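Sanity check. The docking grid for guanine depends on where the pocket ends up, so I'm generating a full predicted complex first rather than guessing from homology. Inputs follow.
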Amino acid sequence: MVARIIDGKLVADRIQDEIASEVQQFVQQHGYPPGLGVVLAGDNPASAQYVRMKRRACERVGFYSLAHTMTVSSTQAEVEDAVQAFNDDPRIHGILVQLPLPKQIQEEPVLQRVSLDKDVDGFHPINVGLLGMKGREPLFTPATPTGCMVLLREAGVTLEGANAVVIGRSNIVGLPVALMLMKANATVTVCHSRTKNMAEIVRQADIVIAAIGQPEYVKGSWLKPGAAVIDVGTNRIDDLSTDKGYRFVGDVEFSSAVEVAGAITKVPGGVGPMTITMLLQNTMKAARRKVV
Ligand code: GUN
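Predicted complex below; grid placement will be based on this.
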């Protein structure tokens, strides 16, 4: 079997087009665009690149965006004050605190400071708690896990009763995507760096979400034939045969997995474009909630 490719770029472009039309209507009705406030502290080049891409996407769909950029030696109070300034700014409907923060900054009080109404990253502990609780719904769900769920639905994958294995338990992806799959009535197993016999567990899975941050970690031989595989990883590896001397690979060994899976995402062009798109969607929702 050769897997069907789940094209995240295609889905993301379509949703971004829909958001762009919605922004036009919003501006006509209200006279101002939805706004995203970005807090970027530190000198992590990957974070700076993500923030550039997110702000460029804002511009493309017609959002206003404003960034508070702080040095690696910024203080807890400076970062929290930047969040508070966005809480108080009526032009800003959604706030993104790019993670990771510099090591001297405690993440939890910063994320708690984000107004629940503006928590478009879905990282406020109350929103995470609501995501985990039966019969409750958070105001916003985190971008990358939401992107994974949209791609599974777009690929026509049945979630109800499916065995889903999540590899990775980070606050940003593994944990929330496991909660979202559980809410969608899948039977969920979370594997991580201490898991024993991971290949055997993955072989039971109808759905695999790979978010462990290790290049090409999941092999095709681990997969149940026909499984749906969502690869969240973006790992830079040296490759002197390319112009740049490097390329990006996922957490799944694509060449072997594509021969066994029923459907699979690529890296790049899979989950990555969806993450940005879901952030835009959450910001649109935050702006709409504000005016109704
Ligand atoms: N760092 C890595 N992924 C993310 C994300 O989705 N949102 C934020 N804020 N920081 C991140």
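Relevant for the grid: The chain has two domains: 30-118, 143-273.
Also worth noting: The pocket of guanine is lined by residues 96-99, 121, 143-144, 172, 275 (CB under 6 Å).
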